[in-house]
Amino acid sequence: MNFKNDKHIIFTTIFITLSLFIVFTFFFMSEIKNVNASQKTAVKEEVKKVSFVGVGDNLIHDSIYNSADMRDGVFGDGKYNFDHLYSNIKEDIQKYDLRYINQESIIAGDQFGASSYPQFNTPESMINSLVDSGFNVVNMANNHSLDMGSNGIEKSIDIWNNTDNVYFTGLFKSQEDRDNPLIIEKNGIKIALLSYTYGTNGILPDKDYKVSYLEEEAVKKDVAKVSSKSDFILVSAHWGEEGIEEIDASQKKFAKLFNELGVDAVIGTHAHRIQKAEWLKNSNGKDTLIYYGTGNFVHNMLGAHTYLEGMPSWTFVKNGDKKYIENAKFTPLVFHLERNQYGLDGSVYRLDKYPLELANKHIEMRGAGSYHIENYKSSVKKLIPKDMIDMDL
Question: Using CA atoms, how far apart are residues 157 and 30, in angstroms rounded to an integer?
Fold first, then answer.
């Protein structure tokens, strides 16, 4: 027996075995890391989000469109520049994926002529300013939808249909259109948008389908249609009583109905004042986020209280089988309006970025800017849960 050769063979065998073990261990651990990395990536990819922001009533009185006329060309030439109205808030708006506005005064077409209260028609130039500001979701169902008649609705729909990258709903040209609610697909999430108005100032359409009215059976029918086709349901509700901060019986009734039917969020307009925000929970544990009143946006109404406004925002989240809303906020706004070389002119500001020197020039604050700003802050604190307020007050 040759011990020298045997030792050599033994050491060689041990060396090869250890080398194979090390190599195997290295590849095995690498595979584990790759699997873990793949799993983490898969989990990460399952989380989908869509951010949303909304504002209230874009109600364009003659003082507003006349000043916009003065800004562009010669007064009376049919050219308008509305950009300045939104210049101080557009950066905040554009941070979000979906950006909603209630276009309260119908844009029926310049052939109808610009008109103001009580039957509005806003110049078509407004659309360019809204799109430039970032708005891409437009509510058309409100009490001024029929101000230019049924023909005005059809012309308005044609105008919006020719506007790129903008979703709109609430008014319809056919029963087929009315029977197919809008579903927006964004970032891998499907969001149904249902829009309703309590009425149209006593003016009735020549066809029932043209305006989406806030009626219990219609709501139930619409929700049933979209429930299986969408991840979330958002309702635009034009409801409540004008000038009233408190919510009324109809708002309470429909808020409960929306919650019972499984609606995820409600953005409310019409009262021309901000109203409370809250979460409702039904017997099945379903949560519904409700902003009852967002107030005005751009307008010229009487009373300093009508110039305090709100900008709700939140994020739709789809994480695997889980679907929920997170980061629900409310940003207080002010529409500044003063007299200048263009007539009555102004712009929308965040409340926390609204200069006192401008407040003192506001036509409805009459030099008492500090007093009104403090009143605004008190109203917001009273109506909006502290954790929702998107600024220090």
Answer: 59
Q: Output the DSSP codes for 288-350.
A: EEEE--B-EEE---SSGGGGEEEEEEEEEEEETTEEEEEEEEEEEEEEEEEEETTEEEEEEEE
Q: In angstroms, how far is the first alpha carbon of the chain from the final one?
A: 94
Phi-psi region at 243: left, alpha or beta (left = phi > 0; alpha = psi -120 to 50): left
CA proximity to 127, closest of 151, 154, 157? 157
In one-letter notation, the amino acid at residue 107 is: I
In order of 80, 106, 193, 270, 349, the CA distances from 110 in angstroms are 11, 11, 28, 25, 29
* Euclidean distance between CA atoms 303 and 368, whole angstroms: 13
Q: Dihedral sign, CA of 348, 354, 357, 363?
A: positive
CA angle 217, 221, 227 (to 5 degrees): 140
The amino acid occupying position 133 is S
Tell me the domains of the chain and their CATH numbers. Answer: 48-388 (3.60.21.10)
- The kind and range of the H/E element at 375 are helix 369-383
Per-residue confidence of the chain (393 residues) as pLDDT tens digits?
Answer: 443 444 455 445 554 554 545 444 444 455 545 545 545 444 456 899 999 999 999 999 999 999 999 999 889 999 999 999 999 999 999 999 999 999 999 999 999 999 999 999 999 999 999 999 999 999 999 999 999 999 999 999 999 999 999 999 999 999 999 999 999 999 999 999 999 999 999 999 999 999 999 999 999 999 999 999 999 999 999 999 999 999 999 999 999 999 999 999 999 999 999 999 999 999 999 999 999 999 999 999 999 999 999 999 999 999 999 999 999 999 999 999 999 999 999 999 999 999 999 999 999 999 999 999 999 999 999 999 999 999 999
Please state, in angstroms and rounded to a whole number, the distance separating the CA atoms of residues 345 and 337.
5
